[in-house]
Amino acid sequence: MHVFAAATPADLMAAREQMALSLGWHIILACFGVGMPALTVFAEWRGLRTGNEDYVRLAHQWARAMGVLFAVGAVSGTILSFEMGLLWPGLMATYGQVIGLPFALEGFAFFIEAIFLGIYLYAWGRLSPRRHVLTGLPVCVAGVASAVFVVAANAWMNQPRGFDLVNGAVTRVRPWRALFNPAMPWQVVHMVLAAFMVTGFGIASVYAAGMLRGRRDRYHRIGLLLPFVVAAVVTPAQIVVGDTLARFLATRQPAKLAAIEGLNHTGSHRPISVGGLYLGGRIRYALRIPDGLSLLVGYRPGAVVQGLDRVPPADRPPINPVHLSFQAMVAIGFGLLALSAWLALSWWRRRDLPRSRWFLWFCAVAGIASVVALEAGWVTTEVGRQPWIVWHHQRTADAVNPAPGLWAGLVAVLVVYTVLTVAIAYVLNRLRSRPVGAPQEGWAEEYQP
Q1: Boundaries of every domain in the chain
Q2: E strands within 202-264?
Q3: What residues are paired with 394 via a beta bridge?
Q4: Where are the transmembrane segments (predicted)?
């Protein structure tokens, strides 16, 4: 195992803040890279299938935005790849050979996505409608594949497998076993569903805002309904997956679950705490559901749940950030579920959107809310693993670059992402103000269902 000199606490914090900023910024674009191609291709196919030109206009408009987001996402993804080596040389030097496979596969998926996205964007009006739709399918598959491989690497950090340690040295590396670690299936599904929620609610919020300004035409109505329905269908599945992940943590990462709930003492009949703060060694000001945590983990009140008393103080995650992030994620998730149920009820009764302007207001906010839930979920996952960068194998403090001056890198990255954020907002606003016109006459003649 490679041993590095210890970094100062200030530099360790700078490295962690820089990584958090980069990952938290990039993950939003990554979500649109997963969900937006599927929504765009489906909208185009639906327009060709039904002859409704508004679907094709939406697909064309979304494709332009998708190209912008992909280009900027490529920049932020490149920054992240450099940061893995620059900020965490202890991790890469020791375990790079173990987790290199998912990063290599992600590289292949990225190039496939980039190639076919270029074809898809350039081929508007140059290929037949059928062939043009087909060029978008590899973009959809490669976007999801990229997320799968990157999340698999992160899952390995939570459940490391595929190597042996002999006298501190990594031996007998089995990269495929590392890739398919126990945390990988659930984390991957959770992330992919989150991507479709962020994309669906995010796009729908734009058209909800337009409808609030009086644009009630069919174009805006479809622009709201199509992505919103996709996100609404995914939301209950996401809650079920989250419930399963909680049980996974109870056996695989009990310290993280204890931090999520602020649970000090191991025992049965453990309650679930809703809200509250961890103060003075316990959760205060919370609504407690009796036996809730034991029922969640073991389906019976007598199920034993491990508390923080089984974890050495030096190995405990920071409790309040983990607890509050998890609470925010769950609260927003159930709020989005309620909003989805509101639309479903209205559609079942009248085959129409709810007539209340409050529904449109909530839809307009849902995009931002879904992003907040996404970020809160990643804080729960990443901070909940601390102080380990590789669970029970390598501490974060042992993996960081010991070189001084890491705060300068944090400031530089902050400036870069500020500029990128302003640029994205400006370009997307320009695209919004210049919507794609109706297709030319005869646009669907070559398409034969």
Answers
A1: 9-266+306-433
A2: none
A3: 390
A4: 23-45, 66-88, 100-122, 134-157, 188-210, 222-241, 326-346, 358-379, 406-428
Closest CA to 192 of 30, 399, 435, 382: 30
Q: What is the rounded distance in angstroms from the CA atom of residue 319 to the CA atom of residue 251?
A: 19
Q: What share of the chain is helix, strand, coil (3-state, %, to 5)?
A: 70, 5, 25
β-pairing, 287-289 vs 388-390, is unpaired
pTM for the complete prediction? 0.90
pLDDT at site 93: 86
Q: Give the number of C-alpha atoms closer than 13 A to the C-alpha of residue 340, restricted to the C-beta side.
A: 23
Give dist(CA 449, CA 440) in Å, integer.
20
Residue where the block lists tokens 């990554």: 30
Which of the 8 DSSP states describes residue 267?
A: B
Convert the pLDDT of each residue in 222-235 to its tens digit.
999 999 999 999 99
| DSSP-based three-state secondary structure for 415 | helix
Residue 440: pLDDT band with limits 50, 70, 90: low
201-235 per-residue burial string, b: 16 or more CB within 10 A, e: under 16: bbbbbbbbbbbeeeeeeebbbbbbbbbbbbbbebb
Give the residue carrying structure tokens 């909940």.
384
Residue whose pair of structure tokens reads 């329905």 in the numeric block: 229
